[in-house]
Amino acid sequence: MTIDPNKIRELLAEIIDTDLLEREERLKEIRNESQELYDEILSLLPFTNGDRDDVEKDSFVGEVVGHFTIKERIGSGGMGRVYLATQNKPNRNVAFKILRRGLFSRSASKHFEIECLLLGRLHHGGIAHIYEAGTHDLHGELVPWIAMEFIEDASPLTLYANDKHLGTNEKLALYKQVCEAVAEAHSRGIIHRDLKPANILVDTHGSPKIIDFGVAKAIDPIGMPTALITQSNDLVGTMQYMSPEQASGGDIDVTSDVYSLGVILYEMLSGERPYNLHSTTIPGAIETISKAEPSPIRLTNKSIHRDLDTVIAKAMAHDPKKRYRSANELCDDIQRVLSDEPISARKESAVTKFLRRKRRTAAAIVIALPILAIATGASFYFALQAQYELNQKTKLIEFAKEALATRKEIIVTQPEYWKTHFDLSMKRADNVGKNDLPLLIEMYDMISAVVDSEEAETSTRIKTAELIGLDTERGALLAIEHSSSKGEIDSGSEIEKIENLRKQFSNPSDKFIACSFLAQGKLEIRSEKKSVRDVGRKHIQEARKINREKLGYDFRIEFNVQRTIAWADIFREGTEESIKHVFEIITPEFLEQTINTFGESHPNTLSTINLIGLAHEELGDFESAVTVLRPAARVAAESYGVGHNLTWRYLNNLAMALVLKANCKHTSISDSIIIKQQAAALWYECIRQSIMHQDDGTVNWYGDTFRDMLPEMAPSKEELENWAVSIQYNGKTEYKDSPKFDFRAALVDTH
């Protein structure tokens, strides 16, 4: 007899939190059912010791896992336990989730880490950010963990709504924000699979944040289900909020989350759950979810708009094909209710009811025939449209799987391919979408969202602009941003292009105006001419004003404003006053928001930290410069691999700061020697990687910088040429006469 591993996981999750007497009774029942299953469960139970919630001493409290120190337990559930932990660098509190050992197999370890890297790229104000994930070896067993954003003084969604005595419209406005966050995750290819009020926390500002995204279920970057910590048909989640197909172990897609959102809306508006499953067995619960119809919420509250019954019924339809196709569609109908407009679900329902009522009489048939003909034609059209969207989605999924899904792993494990990966992805997109313009645009957008090279991003941007058309706001803005990244700053031609593109629209949107002013300002502020830079600052401030007064403060626009000004303060103005101004605009609070928005390892975050380090350097505070630049270089090396040109940039910046610190009169001779050795090791690694990637420009640049700043340790041009030949023809990565320094030692602060 072959034992279903899903059955084993389900039983373990059930038994772990029972007391000893209940456990004995349940084990007897299992033994009566199957001796083999009983033996298997009995053999696995010892590995779950300490996972029970009633254990007095929690073995994880006080444990140090990586650079996290676990402080106290703050919650638990079927998937595991959540702790408050502190992270060393940056110094902050995190929610540290440790997953049940019975739900995780050794073979899933690599998939788990890769999937969490993908999830870490999900940045949205309505989703708690995942900082880091990994596995911890506890007595020979791998225990998976995830470090997430800690939301202080937060309340679960329904509790918050009740405590604040929110009215129906206020609840809907809050709920709409949740739908928007779920829709964003779905667009990034992530299904939650455990949406419930307890996993939606509302902070003290009244903003909801979804937690545990990707913990219960993660999929690839576009939508193809793949295992994270469970198999696709595992019974994982909370039964009260599960869709019928999820509860029965079937295949799921985004409509499963839509179902859960429907249950949450029902509970928010009625104060009750649609089904009472407390004393029901799992098979009985599945039967109820799959067949029973919840009572309309208007029976409990007559003041609730009748459209909301229709919205909930469509979201919670037993058949996934009859639900809203996406969280966005559900969100749109919620907005229609708030705006007192006809909902899409009601229009469809009204036509169906009309035809059903009138088909019984001959006279009504005559009346209904034209309507039926129109409806049939419309149905045929929408069927074709749905089929087209399905085909397009399938192609996007395949494209993501083949061209993008392994990108992160390739960059870190095979850095020599980081350049060619972009070219191959673009060629594949051109081939797949050559006869389908919307599909090609989607693929270009997908590629530009994940590239780490500014050159690659601008190349993709202008290709997309050409496809969309410069007579559209989106196409024009892409072309404007492309012009703003060019080097011909003082020729005036690119500025003229930007102005002409902006002026072609008689009634442009506020966002278009703000973004176009910002792009133009970014170009002008790089000018060598003070008068042009001053105009650029005015354009940037105008963009900032529109963002704050009309767009509700989009932090991404604010970020670009502040970073651009800080760059110009350092590299164009260069006065002591302008450099001190950098610290006034890039404050600790601004940096924290940058990390929360983009992530700790995102190029935007690293470049911002780099500006802070360079500002310290320009003011002669080399100790502070090193303190800032060292962790940035370490994060770049850990996140992108030493083979990525982004990492070289931060290794080089750190090397320069180290030399400046070593030459400072306050540095002792012994410390100076050690610091210079660290700088030399960093430059040797930059040169080594540049040679391996056949990037002659950076080889010469790093070599020249090395010789200018540290001539006593730097190799000559001839030595570098010999080294390059040795690597190219013999595959060697070591230069026989180079000092044997470990560059990674320079990334660790030993003081």
Please give a structural write-up.
The chain has about 750 residues and is of the alpha+beta class. Among the domains are: about 5-50; about 155-340, Transferase(Phosphotransferase) domain 1 (Transferase(Phosphotransferase), domain 1), CATH 1.10.510.10; about 355-400; about 620-750. It has helices spanning about 5-15, 20-35, 35-45, 110-120, 155-165, 170-185, 245, 255-270, 280-290, 305-315, 325-340, 345-360, 360-405, 405-415, 420-430, 435-450, 455-470, 475-485, 495-505, 510-525, 530-550, 555-575, 575-585, 590-600, 605-620, 620-640, 645-660, 670-690, 695-710, 715-730, and strands at about 65, 70-75, 80-85, 90-100, 130-140, 140-150, 155, 200, 210. A six-stranded antiparallel sheet has the order 1-2-3-4-6-5, covered by helices on one side. A hairpin with a 4-residue loop joins strand 3 and strand 4. The longest helix is centred in the middle third of the chain and has 43 residues, at about 360-405. It starts with a helix and ends in a 21-residue tail after the last helix. About 40% of the residues are buried. The model is unreliable at about 50-55, about 105-110, about 215-235, about 345-385, about 405-420 and about 730-740 (pLDDT under 50).
